[in-house]
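Input/output pair, single chain:
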Amino acid sequence: MGYGITDHGFAKEENYDRKAELQAFDDTKAGVKGLADSGITKIPRRFIHPAGNFLKKSKSKESFQYDFPVIDLDGIRKGPIMRKELVKKAREASEKWGFFQVVNHGIPVSVLEEMIAGVHRFFDQDFEVRKEWYTRDATKRVVYNSNFDLFSSPAANWRDTAYCVMAPNPPNPEELPPVCRDIMIKFSQEVAKLGSTLFEILSEALGLNPNYLNDIGCSLVINIGDLLQLMSNDKFISVEHRVLANDVSARVSVASFFRNFDVSPSAKVYGPIEDLLSDENPAKYRATTVREYLSFFHNKGLDGTSALTHFRLQ
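Output:
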């Protein structure tokens, strides 16, 4: 769920203890959904962002129209010429936009709709049931909480999140929430197949063997992720994910991240792909592990700056 307001006219309180307020909120295990269900009429201070953090709303009644990239994956099955054109579109989208939409991706509409319905069922559960899943222990197979960066970001987001590591070693079914267990398993299987196809396309878009990204394992969604920008040495760009505030109803989204989840001390090191480097195009980032990247990202929080700056060499 996403919602935000500015702090215009907000009175400063000399005795305000933000850390204590955040801890008290987290201890309830009710999240933003709990606040919304309680019928509050005023957004708590911890959710109020500085006024300068928001884009000014256009006074025009006309909505903006963007001709963003749409890639028809049906072309991958229509021979080498169509595949070459598809790869070209993916390359252009990844270089200029950092994201693209796919159609004819092969995931049944019924599966997509049931996944969204499963999310609603999870968050619509009675609070006493839902809170059993609430945790900040990242080692759990299922993690549900409000704001992963609650204690590090400048202000909290009006959002709750639940996530589960479904691969490479799927959890036992009984480890998943009963209200969305079956569809989580089915959806993850379908997305895994789509992810493999996208890895092939993006590998070719970088001028690499189609199996390159599948073989090494990495981090990304159809929105190009930070690690792929690092590995492509800025050939592909990672973009900040932002959405418009919604004061009408809950906003639900389901994101699937493809990355290596090995966060042990010996985790694999990722750096700019050597085949893409040259004297004219030297490495722009130092190598890192998924563990180091995620640790830095979580500690930094969503402060409006890119985590990639921390790993940049020049």
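The longest strand covers residues 142-145. Confidence is low (pLDDT under 50) at residues 1-12, 260-265.
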